[in-house]
Write a structure and sequence with these properties.
The protein is of the alpha/beta class and 409 residues long. The protein is 53% helix and 10% strand. It contains 18 helices and eight strands. An eight-stranded mixed beta sheet has the order 3-2-4-1-5-6-7-8, sandwiched between helices. The relative contact order is 0.12.
Length: 409
């Protein structure tokens, strides 16, 4: 390390070594200079040490600044003070620019995206018929009939839409007017089934029995309903009545914990109706607002399994008058017209009071909801358009039709 020495320091350093040398060779030095012999050797030693220490940096006693540090310690030249205008500009540039949070899609936007595939598989096919000709003649009507029957809305509903256009042929001025006639008929059919699931005052717990075939989305629909009710300030209990399917209990319990709902379960293979009974008893004892009961996914063609649903319904009604207050059938939009037959069988067996149509975002066959609404006097409670918790939306016919006919390309 380099230190800064003055010329005086170098003289003192040299003199310290002279004194140290005299102390080491005191006898010989006395022979040369007799005056040295009159002074004890230790005096020269002490003087040499003290002078040497003068030149050595000792922190806290005799600090010396290194050459580099001395340069760094020099005061920096004072910059001229900027004027007020420059200071304001610099301050403005230094202020952080606020970054807007990412926009959250509105419910209408999410619905439009969720129905994009159904639009292509249903509405676009109908519109393509009218785009082939500017005139509405017999050939266009015949092609329209064939196209409607080929969609997933079912034959009965296909002819209902066809007759709506055929009956107005004389007054329709072109393809756009024909599409508008179909739109109005679809909205009329769906509006008749718009009836949101509301929990009436004085009913506690409100018991919802959820049913449907395996893979229809029952478990996630239950979780999303519980999430919605929790956000409305209601306490929710979920009972796992699907005791047949492996891991069904654990899967539902995971969702219950995630949404903050209470949970009642039994061992795999237990009697489903007893689980429903225990769930209702727990909901009454704990004062829950809503009880959602899962049931085993089953094929609608299995009579013995359908009988199990009837038994569960009877057990609930005996424990609490009016229960279950809602029998919700969960339907998978990806199965198309098969959903119509499922609705028929479940409704015949246990009297379905509401429908939740799921997986509309992943299917081009979502037009089946129009067929179900036309053939069955059952309210459509929810539509599922994605995997997020808020992607289970209450059914609104007007918004649904607007999104269905919206061209998302």
């Amino acid at each position: 390390m380099h230190y800064s020495f003055s010329s005086r320091d170098y003289v003192i350093l040299a003199l310290s070594y002279v004194f140290l040398g005299i102390s080491a060779f005191h006898g010989r030095a006395a022979d040369v200079l007799p005056l040295i012999g009159a002074v004890p050797a230790w005096v020269f030693l002490l003087a040499g040490v003290l002078l040497n220490l003068w030149c050595i940096p000792l922190p806290g006693i005799h600090p010396r600044i290194s050459g580099r540090a001395a340069q760094q310690a020099l005061p920096a030249p004072r910059a001229a003070a900027p004027d007020a205008a420059v200071q304001e500009r610099v301050a403005a540039e230094a202020e952080p620019v606020p970054v807007p949070p990412p926009s959250v899609p509105r419910a209408e936007e999410k619905l439009g995206r969720g129905l994009a595939k159904t639009h292509k598989g249903f509405i676009d096919r109908i519109a393509a018929v009218f785009r082939r000709s500017a005139k509405l003649d017999a050939s266009i009507l015949a092609e329209l009939e064939e196209t409607l029957v080929g969609t997933d809305i079912g034959v009965r509903t296909a002819y209902a839409l066809f007759e709506a256009v055929q009956g107005k042929m004389q007054s329709l001025e072109g393809p756009d007017a024909a599409m508008e006639a179909i739109r109005q008929e679809v909205e009329s059919i769906l509006a008749a089934r718009e009836n949101p699931l509301l929990i009436p005052e004085g009913v506690k717990p409100f018991v919802i029995m959820v049913t449907g075939v395996n893979g229809s989305g029952k478990t996630t629909t239950i979780a999303k309903m519980a999430y919605r009710f929790k956000n409305e300030g209601k306490s929710v209990l979920i009972a796992s009545g699907d005791t047949f399917r492996a891991a069904a209990i654990e899967q539902l319990e995971h969702w219950a914990v995630k949404v903050g709902a209470d949970f009642v379960k039994a061992q795999q293979g237990a009697d489903p109706s007893s689980v429903a009974f225990d769930g209702l008893q727990a909901a009454l004892a704990r004062g829950h607002d809503v009880l959602i009961i899962d049931t085993a996914g089953r094929l609608h063609t299995k009579e013995n399994l359908m009988e199990e649903l009837k038994k569960t319904k009877r057990v609930l009604s005996k424990k609490l008058e009016g229960a279950p207050h809602e029998i919700l059938l969960v339907l998978d939009a990806t199965i198309g017209q098969n959903a119509i037959e499922q609705t028929r069988q479940f409704n015949s067996a246990i009297g379905v009071t509401g429908i939740a149509m799921t997986k509309l975002d992943g299917s081009s066959k979502g037009g089946v909801i129009v067929g179900i609404a036309n053939e069955f006097d059952i309210p459509i409670r929810f539509v599922g358009i994605g995997e997020d918790m808020d992607d289970l939306q209450p059914f609104d016919a007007k918004r649904f039709v607007e999104a269905l006919f919206l061209d998302n390309d």
